[in-house]
Amino acid sequence: GRERQRETYRTHTKFKPKAGTKSTKPAMAAASADSEWTPDSWRSKPILQQPEYKDTAKLQQNLSLIHSLPPIVQAGEVDALKEKLAEVAAGRRFMLQGGDCAERFVDCAAGPIEAKLKILLQMSLVLVWGARVPLVRVGRIAGQYMKPRSKPTEIVNGQEVCSYKGDSINSFSLEDRDPNPDRLVQAYFHSAATMNFVRALLDSGFADLHHPTTWDLSWVRDQGKRAEYHTLVEQIVHAMEFMNACGLRADPSLSKVDMFSSHEGMLLEFEQANTHKVGDKYYNLGAHFLWIGDRTRQLDSAHVEYFRGIANPIGVKVGPSSKPADIIAVVRKLNPHNEPGRITLITRFGADKVAALLPVMIQAVQEAGLVVVWECDPMHGNTTTTASGIKTRAFEDVLTELLQSFDVHLQQGTWLGGVHFELTGENVTECTGGASGLDADDLSRNYQSFCDPRLNCEQSLEMAFLITERLKKIPKPADTP
Question: For residue 15, is pLDDT > 80?
Answer without folding.
Answer: no
